[in-house]
Amino acid sequence: MNSRTLLLALALMGSSQLALAAEKLLTVGGAVTEIVFALGKGDEVIANDITSVYPEAAFKLPKVGYMRTLSAEGLVSTGATLIVAEAGAGPRNVIEQVRNAGIKVLQLPEASHTPQQVAADIRTIGKQLNAASTEPLAKQFEQDWKDAAAKLDKLKGKPRVLFVMNNSGRGAQAAGDETAAAAVITLVHGENVMAGLYKGYRPLTAEALVAAAPDVIITTREGLEASGGLQAFLKTPGLGMTPAGKQGRIVSMDTQYIIGFTPRLPGAMLELGQAIRK
């Protein structure tokens, strides 16, 4: 290969690398956004949705609305060349419209709310983004979870837990089966007082609260603010008559941190497991 040919080959390689580096990412879903930033690809993200609040650099980016009520026009207008989205992003017809517009879309499979799913998502996204840090990040997460799980196994007792969600403006709702909240309670070795009664989230009633008799109530900081603060939350009908209400055993943490199933899951579960036993 003569020098001229070599220079041309190097120039082409450089152009290819620049093209890869110039990918414009739109991330949809807080967990997806966290993974992209953890992979070192945050500088390629040009916009995300309102659930993407961590890290701070992601929080400051332009928003395309809520992940489940997206519009094709809003997504296309960002100028993104690749959209990485959680399974629940949509509506589906909007995702298809965006694909038909020529924008690449990676949508994750339905979440299983497990640490293993987080590791799988890291690998799926990392492969799509050609991130060199993919396997190191996935293996570090797996080791962190192994360490956290070992510590969780040593915690004593199995508190009866009620998880209250109040982030949507529809009032306080209790988490039943097949929810991220229910999975979290299991991971921290608690007992979901609503297990076996229903699936998803349902509005709270005073009668249901009293009958459930939770030892501790978990809620989100955002939900607590929506309720008007801790004192207002404690005035929820029936709550004051539960063991948790009488003793003021209310645990609140950031929504994405405790039920987002992100790379921060090991630390979040250990912190939560310890908090519900205080």
Name the CATH architecture of the largest domain. Answer: 3-Layer(aba) Sandwich
Shape: globular
Low-confidence stretches: 1-20
Question: Strand portion, in percent?
Answer: 5-15%
What profile does the largest beta sheet have? 6 strands, mixed
Structural class per helix/strand content? alpha/beta
Number of beta strands? 10
Share in helix: 40-55%
Tell me about this structure.
- With 278 residues, the chain is an alpha/beta fold.
- It has 2 domains: 14-146, Rossmann fold; 156-275, Nitrogenase molybdenum iron protein domain (Rossmann fold).
- It has 14 helices and 10 strands.
- Strands 5, 6, 7, 8, 9 and 10 form a 6-stranded mixed β-sheet that branches.
- Helix 6 (115-129) packs antiparallel against helix 7 and helix 7 (134-153) runs parallel beside helix 14.
- The longest helix has 20 residues, at 134-153.
- Residues 1-20 have low confidence and may be disordered.
Topology summary:
Elements: H1 3-21, E1 25-28, H2 30-38, E2 45-48, H3 56-59, H4 72-76, E3 82-85, H5 92-100, E4 104-107, H6 115-129, H7 134-153, E5 160-165, E6 173-175, H8 180-187, E7 191-192, E8 201-203, H9 206-212, E9 216-220, H10 221-226, H11 230-234, H12 243-247, E10 250-253, H13 255-259, H14 265-275
Parallel strand pairs: 1-2, 1-3, 3-4, 5-7, 5-9, 9-10
Antiparallel strand pairs: 5-6, 6-8
Helix pairs in contact: 6-7, 7-14
List keywords for this structure.
278 residues, alpha/beta, Rossmann fold, 2 domains, 6-stranded mixed sheet, 4-stranded parallel sheet, disordered N terminus
